[in-house]
UniProtKB/TrEMBL annotation:
It comes from the Bacteria. Residues 29-101 form the MIP18 family-like domain. It comes from Bradyrhizobium nitroreducens. SUPFAM superfamilies: Fe-S cluster assembly (FSCA) domain-like. Residues 1-23 are annotated as: Disordered. Signal peptide: none annotated. The lineage of its organism: Bacteria, Pseudomonadati, Pseudomonadota, Alphaproteobacteria, Hyphomicrobiales. This is FeS assembly SUF system protein.
C-alpha cells in the first residue's frame, strides 16, 4: 500500500500500511520535532528554512530523512543531522531514523516559508 501524507506542501511521504490516523499523527509530530531544530547561526527552524527535502515514514515505522544545509561550508554541518535524527526519533512510535545530507537541488532562500522570511526579515 502506498499513501502520501501531505501538510501544506510538506516534504512528508509515507509508503506504509499504517492506519491513516497513525500516519497523520506521526506526520504532525515529526514536523513539530523538526521545528525544534535550529541552525545555530540563523534564528529560524530548519523546517521553515526549507532544509528538509524529504521525510519518508515506512511500514516498520522507520523514518528516512533527506536534508540539506544552507551551504556545504556550514559550521553546523557536523551537528545538525544528529539534531534532526534525535528530534525525529523522540516522536513516540517512530522506529529507526536515517538522516542523509544531500546537495541536489542546492538550497536557496526561495525554499524558505513565509514564517522564516518574516523571522529573518527577508521580504
Amino acid at each position: 500500500m502506498s499513501d502520501t501524507a501531505e501538510i501544506k506542501a510538506s516534504p512528508m511521504e509515507t509508503h506504509s500500511a499504517l492506519p491513516p490516523e497513525e500516519t497523520e499523527r506521526l506526520t504532525r509530530e515529526i514536523i513539530a520535532g523538526l521545528k525544534t531544530v535550529f541552525d545555530p547561526e540563523i534564528p529560524a527552524d530548519i523546517y521553515e528554512l526549507g532544509l528538509i527535502y524529504k521525510v519518508e515514514i515506512k511500514d516498520d515505522r522507520s523514518v528516512d530523512v533527506q536534508m540539506t544545509l544552507t551551504t556545504p561550508n556550514c559550521p553546523a554541518a557536523g551537528e545538525l543531522p544528529t539534531m534532526v535524527e534525535n528530534a525525529v526519533a523522540s516522536v513516540p512510535g517512530v522506529g529507526v531514523v536515517d538522516v542523509k545530507v544531500v546537495w541536489e537541488p542546492p538550497w536557496s532562500p526561495e525554499r524558505m516559508s513565509d514564517e522564516a522570511r518574516l523571522v529573518l526579515n527577508m521580504w
